[in-house]
Design brief:
- By secondary structure, the chain is of the alpha/beta class.
- It has a domain of 133 residues: Peroxisomal Thiolase, Chain A, domain 1.
- The longest helix is centred in the last third of the chain and has 17 residues.
- The chain is globular.
């Protein structure tokens, strides 16, 4: 397993439905939480990567504003974007900058202030799913796109709406225990099944909701990591792939090809397999997405993700705990911050910092982060050296 780049700090603001903080204040909050008073780490940062989805930004090219707010003006600054997977794009960028020898310590900060836009503006931007000429004008919104996957999975494997509801039941259990989650309310299956329809078979509580928030990682070379911290979390494997933005060109709706390819790359680079993963964060933008993700990542054979869920194997104490921080469904989804929040959770799990939701003995963790309906997919494997 390659251990040349490490995450040495991770932080996050609480995700909220509506934040009164400015863009700069949000990002500074995540930066401050990551540093936890370490002036030495802060002064060692020699580049900044800023992650957000520009269609939701009021501030044009926000990286300069973020750098100024963090006291990093003068360093090289980069904007990256890949829809909801922008945070994972940022980590991959930082890894490349360090492995290429250009920088030693890189801060990666992701944010989104979804509440700055009106409901109509958010709906219009979220509606730009798939090809904007031939698909989205005819109703292919994000929920409609994932509803296609839900219908295909139901047809192929007998998955039911009650199965989908169990994903939200689990996420609400752990979101209730996460002080940074925006939606800390416990739901029963009956609540999900009775919630308002969005796009059949998906209901309101099958869908993640928007939020405001920011998250930050500080990434370092081996030499810098060993100098700056006693508990680095190592980047073992990185996988990334893409697929057609036009869903009518897809040949499969029971799986996301980009996620499968990204997972294969990450496992190969890390020298591990699905059975070696102790804890995972997957991109549960909709309840069906978590089920498909567990299959695409090799935790369950195709069509068996529901059985894994129903047997409790994705809960604490199960074979592969998934989204025990509440996931996107419970935390909320500030687009540019989401991937970094997932990574922060795994960093904390590998450091043994998660309290009531700690996976005991966790040494290898995985993050699965999607952009749109699998247009982009990133899989990242992290590891600790703790015995």
């Amino acid at each position: 397993m390659q251990k040349e780049v490490a995450i040495i700090a991770a932080g996050q603001t609480p995700f909220t439905r509506r934040s009164s903080s400015s863009l700069g204040e949000l990002c500074f909050g995540a930066w401050r939480d990551a540093l936890r008073g370490s002036v030495v780490i802060g002064k060692s940062v020699d580049a900044l990567v800023v992650c957000s989805a520009p269609e939701y930004d009021r501030q044009r090219s926000p990286a300069g504003v973020v750098a100024e707010s963090l006291g990093l003006s003068g360093r090289p600054v980069f904007n990256v974007e890949s829809l909801c997977s922008s945070g994972s794009s940022g980590l991959r960028t930082a890894y490349s900058l360090i492995r290429g020898g250009l920088h030693e310590v890189v801060a990666v900060v992701g944010f989104q202030k979804m509440s700055e836009l009106s409901s109509a503006e958010v709906a219009e931007r979220m509606g730009r799913s798939g090809d904007v000429m031939w698909e989205s004008p005819f109703g292919l919104t994000q929920p409609a796109g994932f509803a296609l996957f839900a219908c295909a999975h139901m047809e192929a494997y007998g998955t039911s709406e009650a199965d989908l509801a169990e994903v939200r039941v689990k996420s609400s259990l752990y979101a209730e225990q996460n002080e940074h989650a925006a939606y800390r309310k416990r739901f029963a299956a009956e609540d999900i099944l009775a919630s308002a329809p969005v796009v059949s078979p998906l209901k309101m509580l099958d869908c993640c909701a928007n939020a405001d928030g920011a998250a930050a990682l500080i990434v370092a070379s081996r030499a810098a990591a060993e100098r700056l911290t006693t508990d680095p979390v190592w980047i073992l494997g990185l996988g990334a792939a893409s697929d057609s933005a036009t869903l009518s060109n897809r040949d499969c709706f029971t799986s996301l090809t980009s996620a499968r390819v990204a997972a294969e790359q990450a496992y190969r680079m890390a020298g591990v397999g699905p059975g070696d993963i102790n804890v995972a964060e997957v991109h549960d933008c909709f309840t069906i997405t978590e089920i498909i993700a567990t299959e695409d990542l090799g935790f369950a054979p195709p069509g068996s993700g529901v059985r894994l869920l129903r047997e409790g194997q994705t809960r604490l104490g199960g074979r592969i705990p998934v989204n025990v921080d509440g996931g996107l469904l419970g935390k909320g989804h500030p687009v540019g911050a989401t991937g970094l929040s997932q990574l922060r959770t795994i960093v904390r799990q590998l450091r043994g910092e998660c309290g009531a939701t700690q996976v005991q003995g966790a040494r290898i963790g995985l993050v699965h982060n999607l952009g749109g309906p699998g247009i982009y997919a990133f899989v990242t494997i992290l590891g600790s050296d703790r015995p």
